[in-house]
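Let's do one together. I've listed all components of the complex below, 283 residues spread over three lines.
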Amino acid sequence: MPELPEVETVRRGLAPAMEGVVIARAQVNRPDLRWPFPENMAQRLTGARVERLRRRSKYILADLSTGETLLIHLGMSGRMLVSGDPLGQFVHEHPAPEKHDHVVFDMDNGARITFNDPRRFGAMDLLDTATAEQHPLLAKLGPEPLGNAFNESHLVGQVKPRAMPIKSALLDQKIVSGLGNIYVCEALYRGRIHPARRSNKISEARIAALVPIIREVLEQAIEAGGSSLKDFRQADGELGYFQHSFDVYGREGAPCRTPGCTDEIKRIVQSGRSTFYCPNCQR
DNA sequence: ATAACATCCTGAGAGC
DNA sequence: TGCTCTCAGGATGTTA
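Okay, and this is what the predicted structure of the assembly comes out as:
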């Protein structure tokens, strides 16, 4: 479900309730998500203070006072919801436990963080903070699209030699990390590039032009609190609203929004996943 | 090395 | 009401 903007939205929602706060109790309701939880996860989290909540690509990283870092991935359907009263200003009842509430943190400021994930494609792990980037899930990730290492020369250098469709290249987390199906479709529309176009057949200038476009799409989506299709919620339970700004994603058969274009949005399947684009505007 | 495909899992919605 | 079928924001692992 969540791509970079949704994960960043969740991180921002969790931060006020978790940063600098001790995990008073960790409740783990099943042995695994996508993979088994680490050994003694609940015990290793209990009593730890969350020093900082970071994000790397689509992962949330909670640096703990114990020298370990909790890695959280939301998979396709994961949510993290804050309930209770972190600031001590109101009395909030915690909601009744729901199906698929797999992990619950009770913070010592009164906040409760509930991780709910029906499909269980999500993950949690504990790693040494000092060597966190060497974790198998993080080690091979490409640069952050909103960081300085993601620039024109990087993207051209990574994309230009490849024969794969440009959509596949942008989805490859080793080339740039954090994009998913929605934002790749939206970025290619803005860049006027056909998603099935072979990467090595695109001029360097057009590849380079994707850099500011990708940044812009992601920043606008973060600004809107992410995109809510079926299950995405911000940490306070609110919907994101960037889905109202989609130009192509989920708009099969709807008119293209480019001024003067009378064509309609098409859907194709690329390596098993839906791609939306305008056949007139994107070449 | 590359790319297509199946796979993990549940739920929502469409069609009958 | 209920059955079957398709599809879904991710990412790994297997196959050709």
